[in-house]
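ok so I'm stuck.
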Amino acid sequence: MSLQHLGGGTLTACLRHWAAATPDEPAVTFLDFAADPAGRRRGLTWRRLAERVDAVAAALPVRPGDRVAVLCPQGTDYVTGFLGAVAAGAIAVPLFDPGLPGHAGRLAAVLDDCAPAAVVTTTAAHAAVADFLDGAVPVIAADRPGPTRSWPAPEASPDDVAYLQYTSGSTRSPAGVVLTHAAVLANVAQVVSGLGLDPETATTVSWLPLFHDMGLVLGLITPLALGLRSVLMDPLAFIERPVRWLELLGDHPGAWSAAPNFAFHYCATRVREPERLRLGAVAAIVNGAEPINPDVLDRFHTTFAAAGYAPEKTRPAYGLAEATVFVTTGPAAAPKVTTFDRDALATGTARPAGTGVRLVACGVPAGQQVALVDPNTAVPLADGEVGEIWVHGPNVGAGYWEKPLESTETFGARLAGDHPGLPEGPWLRTGDLGVRHDGELYIAGRIKDLIIVDGRNHYPQDVEATAASADPAIRPGSVAAFAVTGADTESVVVVAEHRTHDALTEDAERALAVAVRRLVSDAHGLSLRDVLLVPAGRVPRTSSGKIARAACRDRYLAGDYRKALAR
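replied:
not stuck anymore, here's the structure
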């Protein structure tokens, strides 16, 4: 699919196009489960959405290039607030209201970094937002924006900055990726091409937070660009009852959705009577987490087979905010799982074996190039060799906001030497390790999370999966393995959430720790320095739900876990 099939060359042009072409068609529908357990529907047609966006844009006291932070709860007001900032000629900054538990520090850091000229929120959240900002900037309510302050805004061009997508901060402090209209719409075209999404029949259904890269592109930008209906719900409504998401998928034939790996596990373990669901008409669900757990996919497919869900509807993918979001995905076929020799993988070679590390293929790029590169020499590697994933394409961001040095290091990489078919640069260095096998990309982990002991590489997610297998009460996807400095070499610590931790006796906890040590030693040849079992919710995560291993290491080294467990 080319850009000419989209609604326009900018996000605002797309909105204007669909408001004129299909004014009375539904644009966005939000299921409000907080107001009604059955989900109260709040919807906007394309005409009404454009009117609401214009009202917000006209009320914003901004000039072109100013930043506008979106601090709305999930819902239609988030959509109008985000698009209102863009329509005003400002740079939108999709964030969250201060009520999101555990993220006030990150919110303050991001606001300090982007220095917004105004903030958009809702009437209900206005007081809390104003109190958090302490009067620093004007606050506009998207549902009651007030009088016109500055309008009309100058017409945007494709090369203008549309928004700043702040990274989740899994290995470092958050940074704002600068994304132009052209880059974002190029990624939409790549999504359509790579996934085979049909704009004539598709509906997007999402519970992902709109401040997250995948949630924003799936739930707002792709439907905006293509004129699709977007059906949204709040992340908390999914956590409370994951069946709500699956029911919405069944209610909208041709539905497209996306979720991280934990959501597949959560649904498979929490949904009762899955056979009563209607999932046969679902177009696809993208699994965009790395790593993707093949055992979780197997369980999800088995659980919902009776509801009509076939494995080929699951589309493993790889992406990151620095590339807007989407980089690779596989064909419409059952996810491909390959077992690689663990010892060979530790030395940087992916060799298929009967037993070892099972990895899920994440497919091939669409409309962009991917190279596996030696991170130390900048030389491309052959298929089967583990290297850093580099990306080149029109969807790649322009850099990090106000961070020229970091931008050059991450977005300005160049290959060493001449390599036919590959441009010298600039390339995006993702910081992710991967390997190309049989033409498809497999994700091995993050460079900064890599555990190196006695010269051997160990991938933390592999160690974490082994540790989780010691006891069904250890929560899958809630284990952190990381290296700490030892006397002569790095040593490894495992922190694992245990569902019934409060009921564990000292003897039972000690025996389980011994079991974890034995399993990790047998599978990986690692002698663990420490094993800590903690209550649910104690392993820190990023705003996108990934394990924040660096933050977990910091808590461990500060003694926070020991202090908490001693109480």
